[in-house]
Amino acid sequence: MNGLRAVVVCLVIALAAAVSPAAAVTPAAAVRPGWSALPVPAAAPPVTVSDLASRGPGEAWATGYEHAADGLRPMLYRWDGKAWSRDTGFPGAGEPGWLGKVQFVGEEVWIFHNREGAGEILRRSAGGWSTVPLPQTLWTYQDFTAVPGAAWVVGEDDTGLKVLHYDGSGWTTQSAPDGVLYLMGINARTATDAWAWADTSTGTSVLRWNGTAWRDAKVPLPPNSNVHTILHEPSGRVTIGGSQYTDGVARTYLMTFNGQAWRTTHPPLGDTYTEAMVRGPDGALWLPVRSDRAFQSKYARVDGARTTFSYGPERTNAIDVKPRVLAKAGSSLLSFGTVEIYGSKPNLMSERLGG
Q1: What is the DSSP secondary-structure string of 169-197?
Q2: In which element (H, E) is residue 8 found?
Q3: Window from 21-30, 75-84, 318-327 with minimum mean pLDDT
């Protein structure tokens, strides 16, 4: 009798598994989808990717430039939630130049555009594209940032460092603190709260705009370090990513400001460049890292003291897969970069986690 009962129990379990295959899948596998490839219309290779920004799951923009035979050509792609398409309707799309950082400002999209050497801001609203020319041409355009009510462009001309500020109606030139030699990057949370990282006579420093003047933010950066990026969040939390050098060897550090104090960590990222770091939909920090597999991209997820890694989809005959920029798109994470297939020059690729 006991033997018959055991046979019946086994048959019931087997039947349940056959009727509900999902029961055999672990919860982790069911709720943690991997990276998938998203088709991108090809550009003229080789290409360089500059930036990626998203506003929810149904709109993202990626910028960069092609290396054409007669020089650089601007490159702009739009994600509509289903597919990538190339946008060639903006002013100067067919002229020499390049596109840099892209930002969402209210209901508009703002993009820095180097148009045949002259700088301007492309603005896309419901009525279409328009431009905001810069008040002067610079030798170099290092970075750009924009928020409602303000925008900054930093670079150099023949007189040295330039900080150009736009207040919605016109441009002014702002002064940097004494000892600042060069501004390497700039980012803003509001019109009265902007941050920049600078090369100074005493090393790397972080500056902060308080609505009136630029001041040294007195950030206790690690000794012998530089800054790659500053990540702002609506809550006021700030994360700095950079490299610290010890005996000539670089290792990545992260600093987080909670509104009262800075906390420094050294996640196991080697000497990863953190410029593309974003806060993902899961609350963790995500950034692309150098892959140990030529045919797959690789990403790091930093959640407090825990760092984990994931790989993108396998790409046939790929010899180099490089995600360059990331952006949170609703509950998904978008990646945009380049892939080099054996026998051809690097062209565009995109991947998505979730969605």
Answers
A1: S-EEEEPPPTTEEEEEEEEEEETTEEEEE
A2: helix 2-19
A3: 21-30
> How far is it between the farthest Cα atoms of the chain?
97
Average of per-residue pLDDT across 162-174: 96
Question: What CA–CA distances, in Å, run from 308 to 27, 120, 181, 284?
Answer: 19, 40, 38, 11
pLDDT tens per residue, range 63-85:
999 998 889 999 999 999 999 99
CA distance 269 to 290: 9
Which residue, 312, 337, 333, 338, is CA-closest to 325? 337
Q: If we measure between CA atoms, which residue out of 145, 265, 156 comes closest to residue 209?
A: 145
In the Cβ-directed half-sphere of 175, how many Cα atoms lie within 13 Å? 5
| pLDDT per residue as tens digits for the range 32-69 | 569 999 999 999 999 999 999 999 999 999 999 999 88
Rg (CA), the chain: 24
Residue 97 contacts residue 113 (beta carbons within 8 Å): yes
Asked if 336 contacts 325 with a C-beta cutoff of 8 angstroms, the reply is yes
CB atoms within 10 A of CB 70: 6
- Residue 265's DSSP bridge partners are 254
End-to-end CA distance of the chain: 52
Read off the tokens for 323. Answer: 């995600």
What are the backbone angles phi and psi of residue 91, rounded to the nearest 5°? -60, 130
Cβ count near 355 (within 10 Å): 15
DSSP class of residue 276?
T
**Whole-model pTM above 0.85?**
yes
Q: Own/partner pairs for 279-282, CB < 8 Å, 24+ apart? A: 279/231, 279/233, 279/239, 279/328, 280/328, 280/333, 281/328, 281/330, 281/331, 281/332, 281/333, 281/354
Q: What is the pLDDT of residue 33?
A: 65
Task: Spell out the residues 6+ positions from residue 68 whose beta carbon is closer than 8 angstroms to its own.
Answer: 44
